[in-house]
Amino acid sequence: MSNENNLSVQALARKNVRELTPYQSARRLGGNGDVWLNANEYAIAPQFELTQQTLNRYPECQPAVVINRYAAYAGVDPEQVLVSRGADEGIELLIRAFCEPGKDAILYCPPTYGMYSVSAETIGVEGRTVAAKADWSLDLPAIEAALEGVKLVYVCSPNNPTGNIIDPDEIRAVLDMTRGRAIVAIDEAYIEFCPQATVSGWLQEYPHLAILRTLSKAFALAGLRCGFTLANSDLIGLLMKVIAPYPLSTPVADIAAQALSPEGLALMRQRVTEITENRTWLLEELKKCVCVEEVFASDTNYVLARFSASSAVFKNLWDQGIILRDQNKQPGLSGCLRITIGTRTELQRVITALQLLPAATATTFNKNQNSPRKEHM
Fold first, then answer.
1. Using an 8 Å Cβ cutoff, are 231 and 76 in contact?
2. Which helix (H) or strand (E) element contains residue 339?
3. Which of the chain's ends, N or C, has fewer CB atoms near its CB within 10 Å?
4. Is residue 237 within 8 Å of residue 81, measured between CB atoms?
5. How does pLDDT run across 196-234, given as a tens digit for each residue?
6. What pTM, to 2 d.p., does this model score?
7. What's the Cα-to-Cα distance from 265 to each of 10, 59, 139, rounded to whole Å?
8. With contact defined as beta carbons under 8 Å apart, do 136 and 372 qualify?
9. Can you tell me whether residue 94 is helix, strand or coil?
């Protein structure tokens, strides 16, 4: 194809798409490792066998068995549940349903999950940020001051990549200040690791509340791409107007229904117990490594830590086939790497590799500054 034709295709594209930096997922970043601890996945594949053999027919848009089982699990009504291609589709559906491109804005509080900004930019909606405070709590006065023109607020709790639960009083404050003004989406992708922190019981009180969920983390089904949005029926009805006709393939719905069976839920909870135990072990071992400056408490299936010479640490482990997630570019996370909780064997390889690394002789990070939720070393 000629350069002229290539240029014409570029010129036809929307300006914001031409200039867009896509979300750098773990798979896009690549690597040739055998210890993958960069995507918050479960390390061992669960075993399922397909039971539905109707692949000649289009699937249900909202498979009844999946909807009913997730509603029972989440403690909500089936009319308050929408299933989609991962929680990422739920993020995008909310923007498409509530935000006018070129007019409205979304608001989110970095450091946090990167897909909020990417989805907004893709659709042509402004992404407005209000940085979290030094202890990663929400800056409520700044959020309220920034709400003009905002139709949608995203709050991730527990937050990715920091691992902290957002104070429920702060979430209530955001819901109160946005009533009649904006939708508030609480991203609970990691809620199975701290089920007491869910706000699913607040739906009746807040008609503008949406909750994002997924089977990718504690359910160990990242490859399935199955997520949920919980909201009141009016809000769900609007999302149904913009969702694809067949968001879930028949095999996805089949496996999701099995994962949400009583047996599947029991296995998920066993998995959470195992991950929590491994996380406790990793937190303690990281504190003993001289290249580690800080370890942050976590209510998720990953741990965030600040390293001296973090780029060198990241590359050293990468070269050994241990792939972590670099968070240096996130606001306030200079020197930070995120470590998914893998098997004990995988985590031991991480610690063994780190134990061989020296502390940096010089670092620009001030160890005496206030640090959120620090695990004292």
1. no
2. strand 336-340
3. N
4. no
5. 999 999 999 999 999 999 999 999 999 999 999 999 999
6. 0.91
7. 48, 24, 36
8. yes
9. helix
Q: How far is CA 66 from the centre of its chain?
A: 22
Reduced to 3 states (helix: H, G, I; strand: E, B; else coil), residue 186 is strand
Return d(Cα 11, Cα 93) in angstroms, integer. Answer: 27
Asked if residue 243 lies in contact with residue 85, where contact means CB atoms within 8 angstroms, the answer is no
The residue type found at 106 is: I
Establish how many alpha carbons lie within 13 A of residue 228's alpha carbon, considering only the half-sphere containing its beta carbon: 31
Query: Could you tell me the two tokens for 111?
Result: 């450091």
28-44: pLDDT as tens digits: 555 568 999 999 999 99
Distances (CA, A) of 217 to 188, 198, 230, 314: 11, 16, 17, 23
- Read off the amino acid at residue 372: P
Q: CB 23: neighbour CB atoms within 10 A?
A: 15
Query: Do β-strands 227-231 and 209-214 pair in parallel, antiparallel, or remain unpaired?
Result: antiparallel
Bond prior to 59 in cis (omega within 30° of 0) = no
Q: Judge contact between 187 and 212, C-beta under 8 A.
A: yes
| Rg value, the chain, Cα | 21
Condensed to tens digits (0 to 9), the pLDDT of residues 143-169 reads 999 999 999 999 999 999 999 999 999
Sign of CA dihedral 173, 174, 177, 180: negative
Give 212's DSSP letter.
E
Q: How many residues does the chain have?
A: 377
Give me the mean pLDDT over the 19-28 stretch: 62
Q: And the tokens for 158?
A: 């527990």
Strands (DSSP E) found in 196-257: 209-214, 227-231
